[in-house]
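[recover] target loaded
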């Protein structure tokens, strides 16, 4: 209920996520250190952070496509059912608009 309130903080949440991911993938000054161990540790951490950032972005795109509103002809029951992740989302006796 009242999901329209999320319109107010949605853009700021996206900006904060973009800034956090941007800080994760930026090369740290320690990566240019003359000490090989510090530079190796910094470059390994950078690689891990870039992978985590890429996985997050890919997961966000996949879930956005998955939950994109279905338009056109009525969706088959199995399509509707895989979108219902929690058993509490389905009312007992619900037919998803189908006639019994």
């Amino acid at each position: 209920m009242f999901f329209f309130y999320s319109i107010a903080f949605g853009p700021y949440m996206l900006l904060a996520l973009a800034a956090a991911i941007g800080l994760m993938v930026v090369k740290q000054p320690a990566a240019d250190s003359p000490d090989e161990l510090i530079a190796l540790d910094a470059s390994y951490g950078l690689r891990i952070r870039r992978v985590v950032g890429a996985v997050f972005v890919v997961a966000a795109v996949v879930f956005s496509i998955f939950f994109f509103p279905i338009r056109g002809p009525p969706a088959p029951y199995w399509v509707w059912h895989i979108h219902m992740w929690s058993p509490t989302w389905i009312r007992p006796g619900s037919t998803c608009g189908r006639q019994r």
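[recover] notes: The mean pLDDT is 78.
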